[in-house]
Amino acid sequence: MQGGIERCSVVVPTLGRPSLDLLLDALAEAQGPRPAELVLVDDRPSGAPLRPGRAGLPPVRVVRTGGGGPARARNLGWRTARTEWIAFLDDDVVPDPDWYERLATDLRDLPPDVAGSQGRVRVPLPGDRRPTDWERGTAGLATSSWITADLAYRRAALAAVGGFDERFRRAFREDSDLALRVMDTGARLVRGQRWITHPVRPVDRWVSVRVQAGNADDVLMRRLHGPDWRARADAPLGRRPQHTAVTAAALAALGSAAARRPRAAAIAAGFWLAGTAEFAWARIASGPRTRAEVTSMSLTSAAIPPLATWHWLRGVVRHRRVRPWRGLPDLVLFDRDGTLVRDYPYNGDPEFVKPVPGAREAVDALRARGVRIGVVSNQSGVARGLITRDQVDACMARLAELLGPFDTVQVCPHGPDDGCSCRKPAPGMVKAACAELDVDPARCVVIGDIGADVEAAAAAGAVGILVPTPVTRKAEVAAAPRRAATLTEAVGDVLAGEW
């Protein structure tokens, strides 16, 4: 991919752990040509700025989510990148010295139906003793499918499915979900020949208890992908059925004791004890059998079955009804007068460009999530001789001063009788904006205050949201398939995936 690696961005979501330094050192020292950029996504709610500066790194850019989990962090990373390929790395892996070169080879000349390439993972285990329960679990990454510890996707494939589903708040199942949705489009995922090392990070003895929260995510996976999702994602069922049986025995023992049925309580308690002991021994027997490990396995083996069952039931309740993930749009286009700024008819004076309440906050919220924004504005005052194009451009420049830069600005200077293809409700400006930014119109939202804005969106294959003002006709309000009371509400719906 020399003639290719420059078309790739490396995205690393991070919580600023010490392991990030090892990753950056490895990337700085690796051989071969560099990718276009390294995007570090700081997912901490707060904290001192990251200082990634090292000689030998690709150009580095740091963006912040303010928290939200790995799915949101990765989404921000790829949305702000503009390359054909996005290579995701976790912040606790160490790429091999030839990782750049092998990445280039892995991505070179892939056919168009290949949407992603997974790297290979090694997990170093101790050579002088048996691995602990946590070490064995981490070693499973070496044979896992489609994990984003090292996985490169075409940016177009990510955009087509809306990226990572942000309902997966933990670093669990979000990568499998994405892979299944990408493959559902008919695309293929392949394995490359590049390698990373995934060290086993130190943890406390209760980590196996905390990870049981992932049982709720398994429910979401089933709701989204059907009962065969595990086979498709190469995700074994594990011991959840046994955990459910052990938990039922414990509840039966407590219930029988409360009902003063000692024989039934004793039998149920015996089943609970036998199930818990079997689970604990299965974990202890494969491990180093040190005093600390035996104590941890004994304590956590009693806690895991009820917690796994609880989180599974929580998932059943929480995910009773789920809709397919659409993600955020790739582009939001705003009408100008009456939507972003107060409507002064045929205005040519920048001093009269006055943003509506919440306009700056709305566009900033979209920028913060990596959504590109633009303006599509009818300016028939030019054709009528009431204002000049220079005055229109001056007002647009003032808009950018007040609200920040826009990724695209489309203006129609024609009158209603000119028969052009750009004047809303014609789709020309929407299509031109999408073409300029290489965005599928189906991944574009148009927000405006009159029916022509919504009709232009529909004609272009985009989604329109009407934000009525007192001058919006009642018939236009009634006809709009999507409406919001304010600009803030409209953007909030977009950011919530309701578009």
General description of the model:
This protein has 499 residues and is an alpha/beta fold. It folds into three domains: 5-202, Spore Coat Polysaccharide Biosynthesis Protein SpsA, Chain A; 204-325, no CATH class; 331-495, HAD superfamily/HAD-like (Rossmann fold, 3-Layer(aba) Sandwich), CATH 3.40.50.1000. It contains 18 helices and 13 strands. An eight-stranded mixed beta sheet has the order 3-2-1-4-7-6-8-5, with helices on both faces. The chain has a five-stranded parallel beta sheet with strand order 11-10-9-12-13, sandwiched between helices. The protein is globular. The relative contact order is 0.08. The mean pLDDT is 96.
Task: Summarize this entry quickly.
With 499 residues, the protein is of the alpha/beta class. Helices cover 42% and strands 15% of the residues. Pfam families: Glycos_transf_2, Hydrolase_like.
